[in-house]
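Deliverable D5.2: sample structural annotation.
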Amino acid sequence: MSDVYDVYHDECKEGGYWHGFFFVPRSARQLLLDLLKLARTISGYPHEVHYIKLGSRIKPHYETAIITQAWTSIGVAALQQQKLRRFPPKMFLGRSRRTLCGPTYRVLSELVRCKFVVFRERDNHKKMYSGMTRLQCIETTFRMGLKGGVHLLFDEQSPVIIGDVFIDGDEQYLGEFGRTFDINRTLVKFDREKRPYVSFSKQTRLIPQRSDPARIEAYQSADDSEFLQLCDILIGGVRFHSQNPNRSHIRYSVRLPCRELLSHEQENLARMQQSRFYKGFMLSEAWLDANEWHFARLRSAEDGNMLKPEQSCFSLARSEEPAHF
C-alpha cells in the first residue's frame, strides 16, 4: 500500500550547489514532530534551528549545539527502514543546562521511515548556462535530485504518493531572478517522467514557506517550518563531513550521525540491502564533463572521497498561495 510523503526542500551554495529533500510519511508525521518538540523542551531552545548558527565559537554545552545534535540524531534515526527488533532506533533528545540531569535518550518501538536525499551539482551550475538562466539551472537540478531520489528509494513493492512539496522560501528567487520557482519545470515535468510506482496526490502543491515560523503566512503551519529546519541541519551535516571536516569544530561532533550515512558503500547493493538504512537515503553528486552528465555517490571525506571509476553511477548526454498542478 502506498504511503503519502510530504517533501521538504532546502539548499546550500557552499562548495557546489546542494539540494536536500526530506521525505516525511504522513502516517508518522506526528511521531516525528513530537520527538523534535520534546528535544526543544529538554534542551530549552525555542528558536529557529539553523546550520549557520553553529559557529566556531559555539561550545558543546551551549543550547544551540545541544538542540542541533539532538535534531541530527532524531533525523538520522528516522531514516531507518528495517531491522526494528535487532536495531531499534535510538536517538539523543538533548540535555538541560539548567538542571543536573544527564542526557536524555529514547529508543523507539516503531520505525518512522522518513527518507533523505542530498544532490550536489559540483560546479554550482557554471557549466550549465548555455541557453539557460541560472534559475532554470537550479530548477533543473532540483528536478534531477528529486527524481533520482524517488526512483531509487521507492519501488514496485514500496510505491509512493507524493503529497505537498515545501521549499524554504521563494523570496530569494523573486529578488534575484524576478520570478518565483516554476512548478512546470520541476513537479509537472517530473510527473511526466516518473516511473509507474510513483504518483502525485490529487492536491499536490509546491509551497514556498519560511523555515522561521515567526515569518510564515497566517494560513501556513509552523510544524512544516520544523521539518524545513531539520532538512537544513541534515544538509549541513552531510556537506561538512563529505568535504573537509575539522575535528576541532563543534560541527564535527554534533554531526556525527551524518558521517555514519556517508560511510555506507552506497554503490554496493548487496551491502546496502543488509543495512537498516536501506532505501532510507541517497547522497550523490553530479557534474558536466564534455557535455555529459556524470554521477557519483558522496562519501565521508575521512573515508576517502576520491572518485573511483566504478563509483560513477552512469553518464548521460547532455505565489502568494501555493501553486497547484
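Annotation notes: Residues 222-242 form the longest helix (21 residues). Residues 305-321 have pLDDT under 50 and may be disordered.
The annotation will be released with the project's public dataset once the embargo ends.
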